[in-house]
Write a structure and sequence with these properties.
Blueprint: E1 6-11, H1 17-25, E2 32-39, H2 45-52, E3 57-59, H3 68-81, E4 86-89, H4 98-102, E5 108-112, H5 124-131, E6 135-142, E7 152-159, H6 166-189, E8 193-196, E9 199-205
Helix pairs in contact: 1-6
The chain binds 5-O-phosphono-beta-D-ribofuranosylamine.
The site of 5-O-phosphono-beta-D-ribofuranosylamine has 12 residues, from α1 and β5.
Organism: Conexibacter stalactiti
InterPro entries: Formyl_transf_N, Formyl_transf_N_sf, GART, GART_AS
Site (Raises pKa of active site His): 148
């Protein structure tokens, strides 16, 4: 790999439509290479998508390790061994341990299907619907030790004042995610994303 490439790892637990968007629109362009796709689920469809794209994969089910700390150490070793400079959580449904995060400072990002800080955690779209919101959206953020609490990199909203079913919201949310997460990766890869030295909560973008 040439020195100006930007190798990334992606972690996914499920379908992997966000991974697919990364493979289709980011991988192999502007020096960005997906070098590893990992999962906590051995038969996650996301792993098959990666294999089809010729990307190395590995599964780290919790049951194969003594505890979460041991699993995350093995996962971090594997990612580091592939040379990744950024870890992208694309539907990775496990919390990462603080020691995993410490090995990738400002090097882990996540996509969340709500406008954070509203509706963190699981079933965000369902939470938003139950609350009766009229504006939904997507957030890409750095991962810290909290649940969906890290500094926000990009957000995009969509007005759906008449939405009643999660399915119709997800259709719009996924389309936004598939654009926003690749956009964030491109910005990070070209060094255009940094934390405001005056305010560690705020992300500065050089667009
Ligand atoms: C996405 O909606 C993402 O926001 C959430 O998990 C979902 C993953 O979808 N964190 P997919 O597996 O990428 O299709």
């Amino acid at each position: 790999m040439s020195p100006d490439t930007f190798p990334i790892a992606v972690l996914a637990s499920g379908t992997g439509s966000n991974l697919q968007a990364i493979l289709d629109t980011v991988h192999g362009r502007d020096g960005i290479e997906v070098v590893a796709v990992g999962s906590n689920v051995a038969d996650a469809p996301a792993l098959e998508r990666a294999r089809r794209a010729g990307v190395e994969t590995a599964a780290f089910p919790l049951a194969d390790h003594s505890d979460r700390a041991a699993r995350d150490t093995a996962l971090a070793d594997w990612i580091e061994g592939r040379g990744a400079r950024l870890v992208v959580l694309a539907g990775y449904m496990q919390l990462l341990t603080p020691s995993f995060l410490a090995r990738f400072p400002l090097g882990v990002v996540n996509v969340h299907p709500a406008l954070l800080p509203a509706f963190p955690g699981l079933r965000a779209v369902e939470q938003a619907l139950a609350h009766g919101v009229r504006v939904f959206g997507v957030t890409v953020h750095f991962v810290d030790e909290g649940v969906d609490t890290g500094p926000i990199i990009l957000q995009r909203a969509v007005e759906l004042p008449h939405a009643r079913e999660a399915g119709e919201v997800f259709e719009q949310i996924h389309a936004i995610e598939h654009a926003l997460l690749p956009e964030a990766i491109r910005l990070i890869a070209r060094g255009a994303v940094r934390i405001d030295p005056a305010d560690p909560r705020r992300v500065l973008l050089d667009r």
